[in-house]
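Note to self: user wants both folds in one dump. Writing first protein now.
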Amino acid sequence: MSAPAQAGVGGGGTRGVRLLGYALAAACLVYVLHDIHPARALRELTNVSWRWVLLGISFDILSYAVQGLRWKLLLKPFGRVRLFRSVRAVYAGLFANMVFPLRPGELMRSYLLSDSEGISFGRVLGSVGVERLIDLVVATAALGIVSQYVELPKRLHRAAVVLGVVALALVFLALAAILYLEYRMGSDPSPEVGPKRLTGKFMPALIGLHAIGTAPSFYSAVLISLGVPFLQILGLWSMMRSYGLGLPFLAGVVVLLVINLGVSLPNAPANVGTYPFFCVLGLSVFGADFGVDKDLAARFSIFAFVMLTLPFMILGFIAMLRSGMSLHAMRERIRQLPSNGRKTA
């Protein structure tokens, strides 16, 4: 459920985006909480299966540990990355997304791993871009498969088509860049022998992409990538089971895809408002067939949001402290990262 890093975090130019995110989150919360019945929600809590809740939390936590393993493999061409530190950086980045606006977690975790493992910030941040591309391809493929078995709303179907086109275009560009370097400079390109017109900020990025995309560890990273959404789906579906919704496993796939699409929009820290809203929207696909009305979906969305967010607040806070940072230091570092990132890329 992570999103692309946004440059200029903390600057004055992002104020409008931040306000838009807060407005969207507020509107989503109003929709979700409208006509909700607190008494029913409290009564349903007494019937929750906490074994399924713990199982769901475990799956979700494990999914981000797998993301840390994937990250380690993507960075293998640049040096030895310790798994513990890559996972710790992932959790610290999640914590940054939960407490700061404009989702600076990708920048923060890149800085932490770059600092601890001695790999340049630009290379680490580039590997995060490769992660996002892999995730986009996996999500697009999943939406395509799901659409064969579930009648998706027209807007979601259009979003799937747009995602497919974007994913294909980005993959084509990445492959073209790798093949270009192979053709012009051989299998071991370096900035010193690269074409003069691609010097500066473009050549290091292309060389990093080439190193990641041609390394044997890249294929293992792509394969492991399938485990990240699968574990998150298991986590969300376990929450559905704990709440007694009785929905099929396919519902977990659809709802998670809708949530991930929705929270990629500008929103408040920790996806407050947007997560429950898009959870309700995803559940509406199955509501008529399984008796999940808007009120029940809204109550479940709040429950799932709290249960799947609190553990990462705790783990992320611990990861931040283990990285040698305080909340104040993290805030100051996030303000400095955009400019520092350009200097060290």
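First done. Writing the second protein, which came from a different request thread.
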Amino acid sequence: MDLSATSTTSISGSERERQLVVFSLHGESYGMPITSVREIIRYTTPGATGAANGSIKGMISLRGHILPVVDFASRIGRTTELNDATKILVIELNERTFGLVVDSVDEVLLVPAEAIEQIPVSDAPLGDQIAKLDDRLITIVDPDRALGRALAG
């Protein structure tokens, strides 16, 4: 699924809504700003594992470009459980492109600003906001906070 043609709502002043790519990991919902997600691809086993370190599980080739692959589960102290629904989000962060392994991609969702709250925990490692939609909670991932250190260097 190529998201490059997806439009985002940009409103000056306060944001009225945020567009998120919602994905699942170990039964929890997470949302990544659509502006950070270039596309969604089927899971491909990373190769070049000699280049792996920490959260980087290896590399894949995507249309001639080599991408490091980050295991998002390792960022929250879990292990990835691969199956047919496993996807790789192709993320752009600080002029770098990489793959992010997730259990599944659920939807692209427009979240109203009034449904977004600050997480009442200091120094949350993934981001400091959460979306509350009826009985559903979606942790909004700040790509730089959650993944910046994994890709440093």
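Dump finished. Worth passing along: The chain is about 5% helix and 45% strand.
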